[in-house]
Automatic annotation (TrEMBL):
The lineage of its organism: Bacteria, Bacillati, Bacillota, Tissierellia, Tissierellales. It comes from the Bacteria. Keywords: Cell membrane, Membrane, Transmembrane, Transmembrane helix, Transport. It is a multi-pass membrane protein. Pfam families: Xan_ur_permease (PF00860). The keyword Secreted does not apply. GO terms for cellular component: plasma membrane. GO terms for molecular function: purine nucleobase transmembrane transporter activity. This is NCS2 family permease. The keyword Glycoprotein does not apply.
Length: 439
């Protein structure tokens, strides 16, 4: 009974109309729906040259820290981990396209976290979010979804990158079979509303890949082990280029995506949990924002990309999760998962690639919320959605969206609809393209 008393005193369960069993089951449900990140994030950051096992452990530690803050400080039922889209930007834009080191990228994440800690205390973070046009926010989400899906197809070799174009890869192969089986399982289970559909799809296709010889069991067939050391990636920040334009561009992109992603997720999930007040605001929302800000800062030091609130938290909320005990239960599940790295290490790229495609689909859903009846709104959104996967860069997609939005509004006599912040950012992005022409 002491356990029940502790939960009630700490999380105020009765006040929130819930109980210990409901909260724990909700936390497990949230873990099941978001645990695919433990397979996907190390795979993505490994493409940047980082150690897969070390990233696995650092992701878990950073996620647990963020969720403990969410549980005991914010008392909210949200799960946090390395954000999809942000990890793709980290690897495929900053490192692979811009040619920067992963240490440089981690430094940008670290600075982002510090800035967000400050902004979370001052309320500026919400103000920045409100200044960005709603259609651009929706467009960025859609564009990142397409970008992630494209990465999944390329990682699975379903689509190959040629000298000047994309082309169909070798789909008539064992690897292609594993990818499509994983994709079918995930879609079917999602349609049947099975909790943890992506995780079950990854695990089932991994078994098939073992049978086909695409994957191999670890040495000694071990499934349980101590978590891999984080030493290959921990405390590897590089401050040598922090005053460069590249750092500004990368830092802003991280900030922009994380701002709308986290606040949008918090609002959406909180709405489902009836946690918003009569004005549509989330009480103590700054506390929830602080959780991912601190998680991001610590995660960068330990060696992982931006930590953010997961929309999959809605699965736990749907199961009745209403307090920090749900977040605590999810954190405990992450801690247990740390001892199953051998199991995660045999997951084939095709399985995680399928998960990327499905996550891309989920992010695409906001396209129906974009205003396509007003071309001054729809064209900037369209340019964002088009240019992000076309240029293989989240930053370029955001740049084209900002520039076209400010430019079209100004040229059509509707310049007053644009905030000074958007004008300032548009000018900075425009100079980024113009200045090199004259130097």
């Amino acid at each position: 009974m002491a356990f029940e008393s502790f939960n009630e005193k700490t999380f105020k369960l009765r006040e929130h109309g819930t109980d210990t069993r409901t909260e724990i089951m909700a936390g497990i449900t949230t873990f099941m729906t978001m645990s695919y990140i433990l397979a996907v994030n190390p795979t993505i950051l490994a493409d940047a040259g980082m150690d897969n096992g070390a990233v696995f452990t650092s992701t878990i530690i950073a996620s647990i820290v963020a969720m403990l803050i969410m549980a005991f400080y914010a008392n909210m039922p949200f799960g946090l981990s390395a954000g999809m889209g942000l990890n793709a930007f980290f690897t495929y834009t900053v490192v692979m396209q811009m040619g920067m080191s992963w240490q440089f990228a981690l430094t940008a994440v670290f600075l982002e976290g510090l800035i967000f800690i400050i902004l979370s205390f001052t309320g500026v973070r919400e103000a920045l979010f409100n200044a960005i046009p709603i259609n651009l926010k929706k467009a960025v989400s859609v564009a990142i979804g397409l970008f992630i899906a494209l990465i999944g197809l390329i990682n699975a070799s379903i689509v190959e990158v040629g000298d000047i174009s994309l082309k169909l890869g070798n789909i008539a192969s064992k690897e292609g079979f594993v990818f499509f089986i994983a994709l079918i399982i995930m879609v079917v289970l999602t349609a049947r509303k099975v909790k943890g559909a992506l995780l079950w799809g990854i695990l089932a296709s991994t078994v098939i890949s073992l049978i086909l010889g695409v994957s191999k069991l670890p040495d000694g067939n071990a499934i349980v082990s101590l978590p891999p050391s984080i030493s290959p990636v921990a405390f590897k920040l590089d401050f040598s280029n922090i005053f460069s334009f590249e750092m500004f561009s990368v830092l802003f992109s991280f900030l922009f995506v994380d701002i709308f992603d986290t606040l949008g997720t918090l609002t959406g999930v909180a709405t489902k949990a009836n946690m918003l007040d009569e004005n549509g605001n989330l009480e103590d929302g700054s506390k929830a924002l602080l959780a991912d800000a601190i998680g991001t800062t610590i995660g960068s030091l330990l060696g992982t990309s931006t930590i953010t609130t997961f929309v999959e938290s809605s699965a736990g909320v749907a199961e009745g999760g209403r307090t920090g005990l749900t977040a605590l239960s999810t954190a405990i599940c992450f801690g247990i998962a740390a001892f199953f790295f051998p199991l995660f290490s045999i997951i084939p790229a095709q399985a995680t690639a399928a998960a990327l495609v499905v996550v891309g689909l989920f992010m695409l859903s906001t396209v129906v919320e974009i205003n396509f009846t007003d071309i001054t709104e729809s064209f900037p959104a369209f340019m964002t959605i088009l240019m992000m996967p076309a240029t293989y860069s989240i930053a370029e997609g955001i740049s084209f969206g900002m520039i076209s939005y400010a430019g079209i509004k100004l040229l059509t006599g509707r310049g007053k609809e644009v905030s000074p912040l958007v004008y300032g950012l548009a000018i900075i992005f425009l100079l980024r393209y113009i200045v090199p022409v004259f130097i």
